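README: folding subset

This subset contains proteins for which both the sequence and a predicted structure token string are available. Records are stored as plain text. Below is the entry for Helicase HerA central domain-containing protein (487 residues), shown exactly as it appears on disk.
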Amino acid sequence: MTVRVDMGLDERGSAVAMDLEELLATRLLVQGNSGSGKSHLLRRLLERSAGQVQQVVIDPEGDFVTLSGAYGHVAIEAADYSVPEIERFAGRLRAHRTSVVLSLEGLEAEGQMRCAAAFLSALFDAPREHWYPALVVVDEAQLFAPTTGGEVAEEVRRASLSAMTNLMCRGRKRGLAGVIATQRLAKLAKNVAAEASNFLMGRTFLDIDMARAADLLGMERRQAEAIRDLPRGTFMALGPAVSRRPVSVRIGEVETSARSSSPKLVPLPDARPLELADLIVEPVVDAPELPMAHVPRPRRVPATEVAADLSRSPAASVAATAQPDRSEDEVEAIYAEALRGVVADPEAFGRPASVLFQDFQVRCRMAGLARPAMDLTAFTRRLSCARAGIFDVRAEEWADALRLADTLPEDMMGAFLLVARAAREGEPCPSDEQLAHTYGTSSLGRVRRLIGYIESRELFVSRVDLSGKRSITIPHLGWTTAAAEAA
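--- output ---
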């Protein structure tokens, strides 16, 4: 079946068509500086071939997601998912022959490369029975197949470059036809660009890019000047799918538009300069008033000094002897307040539980409870709960979480309960630094091993999305934290 896609008009006003079946076998490279009309060209190709072939779009800026409404493409926001999920999506869309736009908007360069590498590799590794023909359009291909490493990790660059190379070099037998677009040929890996047999070259100004474009089009170097003079939206086309000789093509109109557009001049506001100045420097009504002078805080008395003073004070012994009976609720309230004071003390970090237990006893004595009915083991458990922000251990909503925490070593209870508290309240996942503080360490490596150990006990399920944000689920409770940066 021969399907010809109308791309636009040549210099004589004749229609220029793209042979879709030939394109699937020979691939396409689009090149042009920013503003030359590359995205418009890709959109024209996608719109006119929609319904004829499966389409997969790698979209760094999220401009092509508008195809979903008019042409039924599935739009996937990659930042919302993890790498394994992206790989599963790729396998499913090959099996069901679904057209999709993978939007990488919101990801940093390294995250975009990691996502594209995983997605393209999963497309490439699909089982043979799913090798249906598909156009794989990669916009801003120099981001995913760079000539140099840049500021991304070397392993990420290699994975992305390998996936792009497989797409362009070995994808044809698997039904994958690469359509790549780039602003700079000089920044695109040569082994990726060289596999394309069809070319659409737009306006280019740099000599090195014009020279490479002229070589690909089979033009002499002196003829390359014509590429610099191309108007916006006009491309020099060459290849078995479009023309056997270089031909100028003015790309036709499209039906959909990108979410973002080129900036347009608009009239400035019609207001006098004094009015604008008053508007800009208008004071903020809700701004809090900050103190102009430093107000010194009273010195915090260390627990050792308080204990020494109490031991020397005969009045304290008399008060302890005359202490009235207290209800269980009153005792719990004193415990909670004392624990709050212990965990709020900045000097408590890193101190052993036995030392903090002495501080706890002093605070209880100062509150009128001479002999706390709590030994060191019980205090250690309550301290772990307090460091996680749980002071009322009798509350029914924490019963299941505490039961699970009791299955872990005592020093891990605080970290588990900190995550449980965030998950129950839908708060962001605690960072490694927060977990390290609760765990009583300054080593982030120990924190990662701690999370791995709790996962091995099937109490945690960690998930890291492509933007690097981590969320943790406690499957036995059905609680999940919100995603947050782990660092």
